[in-house]
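Memo to structure team: turn this sequence into structure tokens by end of day. - J.P.
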Amino acid sequence: MLKHTLRRHLEQAFSEDELKRWFDPLGLAVTDAEKRLEVLFPHAFFATWFAQTVQDRFEESLSRYLGPGYVIGYLADGHLTAPGQRPALAPKSIDFPFGHQFSFDSFLANDKNYFPLASAREVAKAGQVTYNPFVVCGPSGSGKTHLLKAIANELSRRHGREAVSFGTVEDLNALFTAQPPDQVYRARENLLRFEALILDDLGLIKRYPDIQQELILVFDSFYDRKKQLIFASQDKLAGYDFLDPTLKSRLEWGLIVNLKQPDLDIRLRFIEQSCKQKKLGLDKEQMLSLAQRFQDFRYLQGILLKLSAFRELVNKDVSSEDFEHILAHTESGNHSALTPEVIIGVVAGEFKLDPKNLKSAKRHHKVVQARQVAMYLCRQLLGISYPALGRVFGGKDHSTVLYGVNKIQELQNVNRDTKNLIQTLKDKCLSLSRE
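Reply from structure team:
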């Protein structure tokens, strides 16, 4: 029964021929009480081929199917290995705490971005820290955050979620400013609990010059203890004249890679992949038209969502006339119109509340729940820092925002209705932003 239902789930990501080739020969055994899945290979050679070819994609899809907390083990010949022998593949967690969509396999790249992708994979490997720090540079929409979250997911699966700190410069600043002046050291101690520090949007440090000295101290502590440091930046470090020379020098100690904007080939592959997942029956000419017209990945996602919503709501395939009509009423700019106000309006409408209530100090259960949902969506869809979110929601403290966002994340892990509600609201927000 498990294998049959899992196979149907995998049909969203794999073709029938692929499943016949590698999934059908597998044996599966799941222990719900221990949250463990055993995968039985017919022989050791099959295990080697599996690890090199489909393991990452399989585990990503499997994580979506089973939910959080599961560990996967691999065995050859249908038997446990003898004492002292290693299993066919090492058992590991299949959680994706930073998002299922952020994996190395789902990062679309051609030759011009092969080196950054290969370098990121190497950084995420277990074992000795080789490239430290690892710095990813690239313009907006080039995939920096995707790579960083893919690394964070892989490190978390190997070492545990508690081993990885992921945030922006704004989050780092909030951590330090939350401490009394004579106890700033506590923020450093908090960071040093992690095995990896991943910091996105390094350019934002221009707004917080005082944080640079703290970052230097944190950097030195991580580096001396051979713990991984990872950064992302929109521009090359050479152009950041606002960086403290000491910090800039330390950032240049490691490996710096540069991501290029996704070209037509990558955008077309992304569209084809999305159409397959969403079961959108666009022809090759329509896909090419989208790839040529929309260059920003985030904008492209919105267009595909709009086409998918049309098919589902109207309950028919998108005809040539429908396709042209939708594109004719869609701007081809590269910037999203999605704002906190749009998200707050959507959430308030769902909860049948006045949007003003979500920014107020009211503590009624329904208002608090709606406010936390709106905070979570603003964080997920817009990437707004916790301090900035606090200001959006009527001057709330950043710790209040952090609590609300974490609570909604945890509820999704244990409550399917909450998870479905969040997905529905997310789709509405993205759809409205493209109208």
